[in-house]
Amino acid sequence: MNRREELALSLAEVKDRIAKACAAVGRSPDEVELLAVTKTFPAEDVAILSDLGLTAFAENRDQEANRKTAEFAELRPGAAAKWHMVGSLQRNKAKSVLRWADRIDTVDSIRLADAVAKAAAEPTEVLIQVSIDGDEARGGHPIGDLPRLADHVARSSELIFRGVMTVAPLGMSPQQAFAALYEAVTRLRVDHPDATVISAGMSGDLEDAIAHGSTCVRVGTALLGSRRLASP
Q1: Residues with Cβ < 8 Å from 89, sequence gap 6 or more?
Q2: Which of the residues bear the PTM N6-(pyridoxal phosphate)lysine (predicted)?
Q3: What pTM value is reported for the model?
Q4: Rounded to the nearest 5 degrees, what angle is found at the Cα of 60, between the Cα atoms of 18 and 157?
């Protein structure tokens, strides 16, 4: 089986999982975006996934993404692609990341929001990364303080507040984590009705995330296979 056949099979399996998860809770698969996490994989894989109909791709390292997005543009000139930054972002890297990223999914502080706003040449879409358990080592803004950061982001003319992103904590069941996020987002939308994105769920827990309102699942391993060694 060649690489195109492998990716086509994996994509079909992931789409089937999404469809079944949606059916189980009375949702349409059209409500859930598939974000392909292509970190550590080559631009050639992104090109194949683009040929197979995917348009949303995620990277977590600025240097790798800068190179890969340029290579993809050469491989598939004019192809539709939206690139997401899903890794931890240092404030001094904001300008560099915005050269390739269409959306920053990991804004987790007022200082980082301000840095992205300052670096943005045009209004930039962002998600707030939420920490469900408050573990600062794993990144994310404390869920209890979400409204304050959301209000700050929404006031910025350089930022477009699209919603939230989270990773289920290791010491908590995915069901519990995603339920807590959904409750917080429901309250948040009273003041921010346009913050409709809930980016939650990955290869191992996307069903639980969809059951609790996820509108975007970030899938790497189930789609592309085991991680390759990251380039330097």
Answers
A1: 97, 104, 106, 107, 112, 116
A2: 39
A3: 0.95
A4: 90
pLDDT band at 228, cuts 50/70/90?
low
Structure tokens at 125: 């879409």
Name the more confident of 160 and 226.
Answer: 160
Query: Tokens standing for 171?
Result: 């010491």
The two tokens of residue 161 are 């507040």
pLDDT digits (tens, 9 = 90+) for 78-136: 999 999 999 999 999 999 999 999 999 999 999 999 999 999 999 999 999 999 998 87
Q: Give the span between the Cα atoms of 196 and 212, in whole angstroms.
A: 14
| Selection from 124, 125, 207, 197 nearest residue 166 by Cα | 197
**Residue 16 region, left (φ>0) first, then alpha (ψ -120 to 50), else beta?**
alpha
d(CA 107, CA 115): 10
- Sorted by sequence, the CB contacts under 8 Å of residue 132 that are 6+ apart come out as 140, 143, 166, 168, 169, 172, 177, 180, 181
Integer Cα distance of 66 and 52 in angstroms = 23
- The domain segmentation of the chain, as residue ranges, is 3-224
Q: Which residues of 180-215 are buried (b: 16+ CB within 10 A; e: fewer)?
A: bbbebbeebeeebeebebbbbbbbebbbbbbbbbbb
CATH 3.30.300.30 describes domain 3-224: no
